[in-house]
Specification:
The complex is a heterodimer of chains A (291) and B (299).
Chain A lengths: L1 H12 L2 H27 L8 H13 L3 H11 L1 H19 L2 H6 L5 H35 L8 H33 L2 H16 L2 H7 L3 H7 L3 H15 L18 H25 L7
Chain B lengths: L4 E10 L2 E11 L4 E5 L6 H8 L7 E6 L2 E2 L4 H5 L2 E4 L11 H12 L4 H9 L15 H13 L5 E5 L7 H16 L3 E5 L3 H7 L2 E6 L2 E7 H7 L2 E6 L4 H8 L7 E4 L2 E4 L6 H10 L4 E7 L3 H10 L1
Parallel strand pairs in B: 3-8, 3-9, 6-7, 7-8
Antiparallel strand pairs in B: 1-2, 1-4, 4-5, 9-10, 11-13, 11-14, 12-13
Classes of the chains: A mainly alpha (291), B alpha/beta (299).
Chain lengths: 291, 299
């Protein structure tokens, strides 16, 4: 498996698309932090106790250590989802369009190992993107911390980083595997990007189900089985781990989110079902030439 | 000796279209085997089934003693292949493209330089694949096929797109590989090339095997005598039909092609001349593989 991952790593890290995506991802993180910082600085004097003051305080926390780590991981789980979809669709879809899947599977016919190696390598790259964004955020947090007061323990924040990063990667896992599924089903990059992004949009728009969830009981339980709700739990855990209070700036009903245990189980279940479907499609189908 | 390739009633059906129809074929060790057929005959589908890329609808393919469907790893561990157009990562160099394959196969990295040297691409090893000419791409594909030190090499139109010098180089390379005891399964349209390189050939038409055997035997079938008559040919045809050792007679381009041993040419000359037939030209005729191919596939 190691040499398969090494092969995938070489393909992905030398690909211009990967570098462009990483550059845009980091640039957008910088933009987000700058916007938060400017917003917090401009409204720094508003009356204490008001909801606006609470929001300003939250944006301040997000701009300095250790809260800025939460911002970086939140960015990874927010916009990073779109980048993960594009990266995954590119990694798998181009194998079809360039005909390289045929070249490789003719030499290494174990398709399960091929798919596992590809998924693991994509996750490794996302881990790298997470590390880069944490380093960038950390440096920026130090800089901005000299301009506005910090709150919370930096040591605790640093200690929370490994688990926070793993949690963020775990949140991206179902999107990566779902995109692999769509890419293999459509045998193209476009199918993967379209499928992954459409799902991201749909997930945000489970409005009808969310409305029923307000009724509570079984409706709430059904809603809490959607992937988005469980991911929200994990994202919230990450925010809290770095002293952030997203409740101050978002009107979401955080108290009705699924438990962390359920969140992990449901995300695992979705991920497993996406992976099994992707593997089934890859193993069952004939491998044609370049498309 | 154990067959390197053996197919039994190998069939592939795409919807209602039968791409390969009950193909039974055996290729022995050390052979250079030609696999011919018009476009759409099922050659590439057959190769893809031999490589486990396409699942047969029925029948089986055994490569190096292992069933491709049941034991793909064992069957393909020492197989090198080039199928259709060379497929590589355009943004990677030739070296890195081979490195991907070496890593995937868990092979020694030193093989890359050997493979690049074998196809004379060492000096361009660090250049991106997207900058390569068609000929260089073909050569890189052959280099990729050589990485695993293969016992069996499947080449699908290896000289496609190459200039005459490039074609000559590849032919020499194939000869050298065969001389080293490797089995070569060569599919293509370059019939003169197949004729030069292959000991045996199989001809496929609409998925069915329509001819198979040593090249010499196929060419022997097309041997005969060609006679061009001055004036009316009817008398000559009548005389020739009366000879017990003459087979079919075919009128071709104003001449008569006689299915008879070429050694009988002086005898035919004497008989026709004795009957007062004016002979403009008479000579032994032998078909090229291209003639055989066109004749068989057009029947």
């Amino acid at each position: 498996m190691n040499h398969l991952i090494a092969a995938e790593w070489l393909k992905l890290t030398k690909r211009p698309l990967t570098r462009i995506l990483l550059a845009i991802f980091v640039a957008l993180l910088l933009l987000q932090i700058a916007a938060q910082f400017i917003f917090a600085s401009m409204l720094a004097g508003v009356g204490t106790g008001s909801s606006l003051a609470l929001q300003v305080a939250e944006y301040q926390r997000r701009s300095v250590l250790p809260g800025i780590f939460g911002t970086a991981l939140g960015h990874l789980n927010g916009l990073g989802g779109i980048f993960a979809v594009i990266l995954t669709a590119g990694a798998m879809g181009s194998e079809y369009s360039w005909g390289t899947l045929r070249t490789q599977l003719a030499r290494r016919p174990d398709r399960a190992r091929f798919l596992i190696a590809k998924a693991l390598t994509i996750l490794l790259l996302l881990l790298l993107a997470g590390l880069v964004s944490l380093v960038v955020a950390g440096l920026l947090g130090i800089l901005l911390g000299s301009l506005i007061p910090t709150s919370g323990s930096v040591v605790d924040g640093l200690a929370a980083l490994p688990l926070g990063l793993l949690r963020a990667l775990f949140v991206l896992l179902p999107y990566v595997l779902l995109t692999l599924c769509f890419t293999i089903a459509g045998r193209s990059l476009l199918a993967g990007v379209a499928g992954g992004l459409v799902y991201l949009v749909l997930e945000g728009g489970f409005g009808a189900v969310a409305a029923f969830a307000q009724l509570g009981g079984i409706w709430r339980q059904i809603y809490n089985l959607t992937i988005g709700q469980n991911i929200n739990t994990l994202v919230l855990l990450n925010a809290h781990a770095f002293g952030l209070q997203p409740e101050q700036i978002a009107p979401t009903a955080f108290e009705s989110l699924p438990s962390p245990l359920q969140a992990v189980a449901v995300v695992l279940l979705y991920s497993a079902s996406f992976f099994v479907t992707a593997l089934y499609l890859l193993r069952k189908r004939d491998i044609g030439g370049a498309g | 000796m154990e067959a390197v390739i053996h197919t039994e009633e190998l069939t592939k059906q795409f919807g209602r279209h039968i791409a390969v129809d009950r193909l039974t074929l055996t290729v022995g060790p050390g052979e250079v085997f030609g696999f011919l057929g018009p476009n759409g005959a099922g050659k590439t589908t057959t190769i893809a089934m031999l490589l486990g890329l396409i699942r047969p609808t029925s029948g089986r393919a055994v490569v190096l003693g292992h069933d491709v469907q049941r034991e793909p790893q064992a069957a393909l561990a020492r197989v090198g292949a080039m199928i259709e157009a060379p497929a590589f990562y355009p943004y990677l160099s030739a070296y890195d493209n081979l490195l991907v394959l070496v890593r995937m196969g868990g092979l020694p990295v030193a093989r890359i330089d050997q493979a690049l040297a074998a196809v004379e691409l060492t000096s361009r090893g660090r250049d991106q694949f997207r900058t390569f000419s068609q000929g260089m791409r073909q050569r890189l594909a052959i280099a990729a096929a050589l990485l695993a030190d293969p016992q069996l090499i499947l080449l699908d139109e290896p000289t496609n797109g190459l200039d005459p010098a490039g074609q000559h180089e590849i032919r020499e390379l194939i000869r050298n590989l065969a001389a080293a005891g490797r089995t070569i399964f060569l599919s293509g349209h370059q019939l003169h090339e197949i004729e030069q390189l292959c000991g045996r050939v199989a001809i496929l038409k609409q998925g069915r095997l329509i001819a198979e055997g040593p090249v010499a035997d196929l060419l022997h079938q097309g041997r005969g005598v060609l006679v061009r008559i001055q004036g009316e040919v009817a008398q000559a045809l009548e005389i020739l039909r009366g000879l017990p050792w003459v087979g079919a007679l075919e009128q071709r381009d104003g001449a008569i092609l006689i299915d008879a041993p070429p050694e009988r040419t002086p005898e035919i000359t004497a008989i026709l001349a004795g009957a007062g037939v004016a002979i403009q030209e008479i000579r032994a005729h032998s078909e090229t593989l291209e003639d055989v191919f066109l004749r068989i596939t057009s029947e």
